[in-house]
Automatic annotation (TrEMBL):
Belongs to the glycerate kinase type-1 family. This is Glycerate kinase. Coiled coil: none annotated. One of its GO terms (biological process) is organic acid phosphorylation. InterPro entries: Glyc_kinase_flavodox-like_fold, Glycerate_kinase, Glycerate_kinase_RE-like, Glycerate_kinase_sf. The keyword S-adenosyl-L-methionine does not apply. Pfam families: Gly_kinase. GO terms for molecular function: glycerate kinase activity. Keywords: Kinase, Transferase. It comes from the Bacteria. SUPFAM superfamilies: Glycerate kinase I (SSF110738).
Length: 384
């Protein structure tokens, strides 16, 4: 019997690999002779680096970079290891690690001045280590600068009408007059970039970066108008530079317009995060010949349908006609819709109503116990 365990992390409590380990431990109590294949996965958001490093026996690189407010912060990215089947040396970067909202306290949040420069520094470090393929996860950013800070870090000169470098932050984009790319990092053209992007927002307008994501980053209604105009001007100057005008391309408004920046300055492709991750960890090959696939995440609800890990895993499993069980910390009232889209059974590990702190602290034990009981049931059914 072959069982594939491919969960996402349980946020704030267990990494995806820790989730996979506890599921395996529980299942082995009833099915000790089964073959277990653990493939920690993610959907391109928080935890993607750790999941992909764990899945490929890779390594984490830590370094100090420029944070959203211009002060130094410790950030990280991953380099995939021997378990990666690709033919290029590959790194995985989460934008939030260097430019994330969690790095700015609530009182200091101001997308007029926050910068994505630190994300660019992570890219430069990876390039300098000989990386030939970089996967970047967008989301969770504190910025609304269209990736301008990232562009500055990789060598682009963003200049005002006097020929001086503009300041960092979304507001400064209104002063942009020219873009000079002569000093762009020389290894960028030798590297391919894939960007995990799970929103369809354009750059500007009432569905754009500033209007939709600006308020959560501290933008007032007046700031939203200012930032939206600045991003529009930024897109004008990018187009005048001879770069394809992608301001209306679905997803370029992600992470404060970072989607536009990575397309313009890195030549990146925007793709659904779960698709990038599953392809990189070779999940489809792992599932071939399996008798059962187990997936999960911290919370299962109707939103899981929209590009989340369990649905991506279920899609791969169903292509091989393999049954799928999903395990979560919490299963919401509307989660049963998932049973119509490739998941065969849903289980919550939380035994009773508990304070959140206690739920998180007991997640490992509860996951083991739940997995053990599911395995016992599965073994009973298999032996009928």
């Amino acid at each position: 019997m072959k069982i594939v365990i491919a969960p996402d992390s349980f946020k704030e409590s267990l990494t995806a690999m820790e989730v996979a380990n506890e599921i395996e431990r529980g299942f082995r109590t009833a099915l000790p002779n089964a073959e277990y294949i653990k493939v920690p996965v993610a959907d391109g958001g928080e935890g993607t680096v750790q999941s992909m490093v764990d899945a490929t026996q890779g390594s984490i690189i830590k370094l100090n970079v420029t944070g959203p407010l211009g002060t130094k912060v410790q950030a990280f990215y991953g380099i995939l290891g021997a378990g990666y089947q690709g033919n290029k040396k590959t790194a995985v970067i989460e934008m939030a690690a260097a430019s994330g909202l969690h790095l700015v306290n609530e009182e200091s949040r101001n997308p007029l001045i926050t910068t994505s420069y630190g994300t660019g520094e992570l890219i430069v470090d990876a390039l300098n280590r000989g990386i030939e393929h970089i996967i970047i996860g967008l989301g969770g950013s504190a910025t609304n600068d269209g990736g301008a800070g990232m562009a500055q870090a990789i060598g682009a000169h963003l200049l005002d009408d006097t020929g001086k470098a503009i300041a960092t932050g979304g507001a400064a984009l209104a002063q942009l007059a020219t873009i000079d790319l002569k000093d762009l990092h020389p290894l960028i053209t030798k590297c391919s970039f894939e960007v995990a992007c799970d929103v369809n927002n354009p750059l500007c307008g009432n569905k754009g970066a500033s209007a939709i994501f600006g308020p959560q980053k501290g933008a007032t209604p007046q700031m939203v108008e200012q930032l939206d105009a600045a991003l529009g001007h930024y897109a004008d100057i990018i187009a005048q530079t001879g770069i394809v005008d992608n301001r209306d391309y679905p997803g370029v408004g992600a992470a404060g317009g970072m989607g536009l920046g990575v397309m313009a300055f890195l030549g990146a492709q925007l793709k659904p995060g779960i698709d990038i991750v599953m392809q990189t960890v070779n999940l489809a090959e792992c599932v071939k010949g399996a008798d059962l696939v187990i997936t999960g995440e911290g919370r299962l609800d109707s939103q899981t349908l929209h590009g989340k890990t369990p649905m991506g895993v279920a899609g791969v499993a169903k292509a091989e006609d393999v049954k799928v069980i999903a395990i979560a910390g919490c299963v919401s009232d509307d989660a049963n819709v998932l049973l119509e889209h490739g998941i065969d059974a849903l289980f919550s590990i939380t035994p009773r109503a508990l304070p959140l702190a206690e739920v998180l602290a007991s997640a490992k034990h509860n996951l083991y116990c739940t997995s053990k009981n599911i395995a016992n049931l599965y073994a009973l059914a298999a032996n009928r």
